[in-house]
């Protein structure tokens, strides 16, 4: 009974998020902290260390517990050549390292303690990558750049000598590792088809299915931590939830994308008993897809008024059931559960 009650409270919280904090990440007067816009955002697996990137190429690290306390560090002295950062991600097996991608299609590996770039390569198109966190002995990075091949980067060999995966000579836009040590890689093609590859084999796709139709390219792909569900989203605003092995459709949600789209919208997932997806569409939207065998034609969702801009990054902070997003200039917005009593006090 207690577990059922807790699940209902979590569901209520995530579908009733409110803007509870609007926090500057630096001070112009003292010149301390992050003094640029926030174009990229991540948090470590321990939900403690926030990583901020900007269009000017600056990067800052902030402790979550210091948000709103004016305890800022100087941005890192990385030489990123003023390239606009589009995404940023902590290394899942070594918190000293993180990866950035830029508007000029660079992917760079950086050391946060030494504040320097370790390695980098410029690709042909918009970079989508996923770091394999389950193979701790040799964690490889899968990369898609809209080219006709996916790349598997082994840093022991070098970023310039990746393993190549080709699939019918059609551009590949997204990649995602299956959450295990079995070397399975999921890829999404420009024509809406999803495929599974064993990177140790040369036999081609183990399974494939076209689940996105209508010509809108897939821009994001995620797999739930338990490996049961594959979430994909395309530029038409469709979010598709499928079984990871037979690709059978479990849920669909049709949102409204921004007409001013010039970068990948941000998408974050939180897999509890139910699956929650947050995505920047025309408005920031949180969608609930029920777990188990239950299916809904019209999933529950919450469109949050567009206090955040449609092109800003967002993340789930799982331990506190919060959504953290970028905002204007160097501000972060935090969405958390707000009770009716709290709402009345704010009014």
TrEMBL record:
Xref: InterPro entries: Rad28/ERCC8/Ckn1/ATCSA-1, WD40/YVTN_repeat-like_dom_sf, WD40_repeat_dom_sf, WD40_rpt
What this protein is called in its record is: Uncharacterized protein
Q: Supply the source organism for this entry.
A: Caenorhabditis brenneri
User: Known Gene3D superfamilies for this protein?
Assistant: YVTN repeat-like/Quinoprotein amine dehydrogenase
| One GO term describing the cellular component | Cul4A-RING E3 ubiquitin ligase complex
Q: Which GO terms describe its biological process?
A: proteasome-mediated ubiquitin-dependent protein catabolic process; protein polyubiquitination; transcription-coupled nucleotide-excision repair
């Amino acid at each position: 009974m207690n577990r059922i009650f807790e699940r209902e409270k979590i569901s209520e919280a995530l579908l009733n998020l409110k803007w509870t904090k609007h926090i500057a990440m630096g001070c112009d007067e003292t010149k301390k902290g992050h003094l640029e816009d926030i174009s990229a955002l991540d948090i470590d697996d321990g939900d403690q260390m926030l990583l901020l990137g900007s269009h000017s190429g600056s990067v800052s690290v902030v402790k979550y517990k210091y948000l709103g306390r004016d305890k800022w560090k100087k941005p890192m002295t990385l030489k990123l050549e003023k390239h606009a950062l589009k995404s940023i991600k902590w290394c899942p097996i070594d918190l000293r390292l993180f990866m950035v991608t830029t508007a000029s299609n660079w992917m760079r590996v950086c050391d946060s303690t030494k504040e320097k770039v370790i390695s980098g390569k410029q690709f042909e198109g918009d970079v989508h990558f996923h770091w394999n966190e389950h193979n701790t002995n040799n964690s490889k990075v899968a990369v898609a750049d809209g080219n006709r091949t996916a790349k598997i980067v082994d840093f022991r060999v070098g970023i310039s000598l990746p393993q190549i995966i080709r699939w019918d000579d059609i551009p590949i836009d997204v990649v995602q590792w299956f959450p295990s040590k079995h070397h399975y890689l999921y890829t999404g093609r420009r024509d809406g088809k999803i495929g599974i590859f064993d990177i140790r084999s040369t036999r081609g796709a183990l399974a494939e299915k076209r689940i996105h139709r209508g010509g809108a390219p897939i821009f994001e792909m995620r797999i739930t931590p338990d490996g049961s569900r594959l979430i994909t989203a395309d530029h038409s605003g469709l979010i598709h939830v499928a079984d990871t092995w037979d690709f059978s459709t479990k849920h669909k949600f049709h949102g409204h994308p921004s007409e001013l789209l010039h970068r990948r919208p941000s998408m974050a997932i939180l897999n509890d008993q139910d699956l929650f997806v947050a995505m920047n569409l025309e408005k920031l939207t949180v969608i609930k897809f029920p777990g188990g065998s239950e299916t809904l034609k019209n999933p529950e969702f919450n469109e949050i008024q567009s206090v955040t801009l449609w092109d800003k990054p967002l993340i789930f902070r799982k331990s506190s059931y919060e959504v953290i997003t970028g905002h204007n200039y160097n501000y972060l917005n935090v969405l958390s559960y707000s009770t009716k009593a709290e709402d009345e006090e704010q009014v």
